[in-house]
Specification:
Blueprint lengths: L2 H14 L3 E3 L11 E3 L1 H20 L4 E3 L8 H6 L2 H4 L1 E6 L6 E3 H5 L23 E4 L3 E3 L9 E3 L5 H6 L1 H8 L5 E10 L14 E11 L4 H18 L7 E5 L11 E9 L2 E12 L1 H10 L5 E3 L4 E3 L2 E8 H12 E6 L2 E6 L10 E5 L6 H14 L4 E3 L5 H9 L5 E5 L1 H6 L1 E6 L5 E5 L3 H9 L4
Parallel strand pairs: 3-9, 19-20, 19-21
Antiparallel strand pairs: 1-2, 4-5, 4-6, 7-8, 9-10, 10-16, 11-12, 12-13, 13-16, 14-15, 17-18, 21-22, 22-23
Helix pairs in contact: 2-10
This protein binds glycyl-adenosine-5'-phosphate.
The site of glycyl-adenosine-5'-phosphate has 19 residues, from β10, β13, β16 and α10.
């Protein structure tokens, strides 16, 4: 299947099965923002929980925060975003469409827009101007310069301004990190590729504060840990690679940056960035706020401004990676099926429970099994509608790893069949063992 078709198929599967909907669709949609439906939100929560578990719960040296989206406007002056968080914007004089000049130069978007009002051939581009990507709004009832605030374009700054609060409250010593998952907003000039580049998205970022001089070693440690996480999500290893930023690609705050890239259907693209931000942010916040942000450890006789190694992954991009990696179309026994081979740890629904037929007490037994699994906090789906083949196919394209069927034999010996989504192997398991059977297979995943 041509890779570019996969994106269209994901958009349509996303809507059909309730993973992702276009925002405000009944009004014609909003530009490049998306809503997560019942299955999508479960998948996204699994991604976030896996990240939080690995980055916070399983470590003694990382603490969590949840900072606000609206911060003091000086934060963004100190961080350099007011001055430098810009893309070069060019506009066509004829069709008025806008492009990012650097992407035109790299040949990444056509100069002949397909949506041009009155298709006019090649665009006539004006001069490039710097366009700031931050969304601006006003705090309070007066809309003037003095009340301007920004929707945060990254979560990182909420961790920097809370650096000493967290360090003192948690009594952490350096090296230690602050982790955060939250919304970020960027007024992208050319959003696109479904949930890959949007104007409202979620980041999972961790700022690791270290003693200067140890930053390069920590950078390497975090880079390999982050790559290991992506692999543990079950995606194909040959679709992940690293890309180190050249001097002209580095963000204004970074001494070194390496992207973890995934080979999306539209090509290799950034999934996560690992950055050595030096003491840039803390130094600037100390300067702009007039507060001392020094780390003081009198026990060890230390007093310094820490360096920061940052890991920054897009939650939505990770969801897109999982969907793209898992999507397959195949023929099974002469019947076509669409299957999402998601890792069971990531799958939104862990099992579907079916009675083979709607008689002989089978629905009651199947409902009881589904109820037991729900009580154990396993998301499951009960379905008795349609042929068993159709029920399997509905679950295959939702990414459900196991289908549990209650049949005539269940009434005789208490066993059910468990069908594996990928291998199609069916195993007979006693109904009382189903929960343990699933737990054994989910253990340590994600
Ligand atoms: N704090 C550092 C920072 O924000 P970044 O590389 O600009 O670094 C980190 O963003 C990650 O956030 C990216 O690797 C990407 O996964 C995600 N991201 C950035 N812009 C995005 C957008 N417009 N839509 C979706 N995800 C985005």
């Amino acid at each position: 299947m041509p890779q570019r078709d996969v994106m269209d198929k994901l958009v349509s599967l996303g809507k059909r099965r309730g993973f992702i909907f276009q925002s405000s669709e009944i009004y014609g949609g909003t530009g490049s923002v998306w809503d997560y439906g019942p299955l999508g939100i479960e998948l996204k929560r699994n991604v976030k929980e896996s990240w939080w578990s690995r980055m916070v719960h399983r470590r003694a040296d990382v603490e969590g925060v949840d900072a606000s989206v609206l911060m003091h406007p000086r934060v963004w002056e100190a961080s350099g975003h007011v001055e430098g968080f810009t893309d070069p914007l060019v506009e066509c004089r004829r069709c008025k469409l806008r492009f990012r000049e650097d992407q035109l130069a790299a040949g990444r978007c056509g100069k002949k827009p397909s949506r041009a009002p009155g298709d006019h051939g090649a665009c006539e581009l004006g001069e490039a101007r710097r366009f700031n990507l931050m969304f601006r709004t006003f705090m309070g009832p007066v809309e003037d310069e003095g009340s301007t605030v920004y929707l945060r374009p990254e979560t990182a700054q909420g961790s920097y301004v809370n650096f000493l609060n967290v360090q003192m409250a948690s009594r952490q010593r350096i090296p230690f990190g602050i982790a955060q998952i939250g919304k970020a907003f960027r007024n992208e000039i050319t959003p696109g590729h479904f949930i890959f580049r949007t104007r409202e998205f979620e980041q999972a970022e961790m700022q690791f504060f270290v003693e200067p001089g140890t930053d390069e070693e920590w950078f390497e440690r975090w880079l390999s840990d982050r790559l290991a996480w992506h692999r543990a999500l079950g995606v194909r290893a040959d679709r992940l690679r690293l890309h180190e930023h050249g001097p002209d690609e580095l963000a204004h705050y970074a001494k070194k940056a390496v992207d973890i890239q995934y080979r999306f259907p539209f090509g290799w693209s950034e999934l996560e960035g690992i950055h050595n931000r030096t003491d840039f942010d803390l130094r600037r916040h100390a300067e702009y706020s007039g507060k001392r942000l020094l780390y003081i450890d009198s026990g060890r006789g230390q007093r310094f401004l820490p360096y920061v190694v940052e890991t920054a992954v897009g939650v939505d991009r990770t969801v897109l990676m999982l969907l793209a990696d898992a999507y397959r179309e195949e023929e099974v026994g002469g019947v076509e099926r669409v299957v999402l081979s998601l890792d069971p740890g990531m799958a939104p629904v862990k099992a579907a429970v079916f009675p083979l037929v709607k008689k002989d007490g089978l629905p009651e037994r199947a409902r009881a099994i589904a109820g037991e699994l729900r009580k154990a906090a396993l998301p499951v789906f009960y379905d008795e509608a349609g042929s068993i083949g159709r029920r399997y196919r509905r679950q295959d394209e939702a990414g459900t790893p196991w289908c549990i069927t209650v049949d005539g034999e269940t009434n005789r010996d208490g066993s059910v069949t468990i069908r594996d989504r990928d291998t199609l192997v069916q195993e007979r398991v006693h109904a009382s063992r189903v929960h343990a059977w699933m737990r054994e297979r989910l253990e340590g995943r994600g």
